[in-house]
Amino acid sequence: MNSILDSRPALRAVIDQVAEVTGYLWQKGWAERNGGNITVNITEHADEEIKALPAIAPVRQIGKTLPHLRGQYFYAKGTGKRMRDLARQPMQNGAIIRICPDCASYEIIADEPVMPTSELPSHLALQDYLLETGSTYKATLHTHPIELVAMSHSERFLRPGEMTRVLWSMIPETLAFAPLGIGIVPYKLPGSVELADATLEQIKEHDVVLWEKHGTVAVGQDIMDAFDQTDVLCKAANIYMCARSMGFEPDGMTPEAVREVQQVFNLPTKRPS
Q1: Residue 196: closest CA among 103, 136, 129, 135
Q2: pLDDT in tens, 13-47
Q3: CA-CA distance, 172 to 2, in Å (whole number)?
Q4: Which of 27, 144, 209, 217 has the fewest CB neighbours in a 10 Å radius?
Q5: Number of CB atoms found within 10 A of residue 245's CB
Q6: pLDDT, tens digit, for every residue of 59-81?
Q7: Inter-CA distances, 41 with 8, 106, 226, Å
Q8: From the CB of residue 6, how many other CB atoms can be counted at a distance below 10 Å?
Q9: DSSP-derived secondary structure for 134-192
């Protein structure tokens, strides 16, 4: 069967990177069964032939109007699909979708009529915001990092800024590679518009957002960037838990040490455009 990726090496490279990351998610235990999802803006790779492709499934509603997505193209993981399968066959476990002119619906154009993730409203709301603000970020990643989800079961770490403070203090690299910390969204029904709206508010200040008792959403230049930021924060959480399992509350870096790292390495205090 022919694929939209045939004779399009740049687009294939994007999808191959998605497949690589999904393999990492499975290996880390962050993607049980069909857990997690991915969306990547591939509009820059949509040539005239791709733009002329007809829909291969009925038009579906997003659930909200997203005006900056008109004419945009995305790769999206399929609903009910496993990350471990996507790692081997990305175009059989995901699809290319096109946003319709009404900016409130989408259609699948390739390779197969695989329904996108149930979290698509959240992903597309984030993508709409990124385009509105002129961001160069193209990827959104939702996954279930074990240590970060575990921390969200504690009321302490749901307080504004507390989880970021602790994670930043575990190791200097967390500051360097996740300089915007982590936002917190109180529990909301998965796949709901309410969850999408709450996530959008947090993503205005953070590149990684934790959904209470559920998982994380990250945005990045590409899917590897989104994965790396999540991975760095989860490593810090793991260090914290290792210390706690040894019977003590870790001291962490002092606030002065944290500020020194931020100043010396000129780390951003808001997401770059």
Answers
A1: 129
A2: 999 999 999 999 999 999 999 999 999 999 999 99
A3: 47
A4: 27
A5: 8
A6: 999 988 999 999 999 999 999 99
A7: 16, 14, 13
A8: 11
A9: T----EEEEE--HHHHHHTTSGGGGSTTHHHHHHHHH-HHHHHHSTT-EEEE----TT-
Q: 84-135 pLDDT, tens per residue?
A: 999 999 999 999 999 999 999 999 999 999 999 888 988 999 999 999 999 9
Token duo for residue 124: 């597309």
pTM of the model: 0.94
Tokens 């499934």, residue?
57
Q: Which residues are marked as active site?
A: 119
Only one residue has tokens 């001291």, namely 251
Whose CA is closest to 210, among 141, 136, 271, 120? 141
Q: Could you tell me if 213 and 187 are in contact, meaning their C-beta atoms sit under 8 angstroms apart?
A: yes
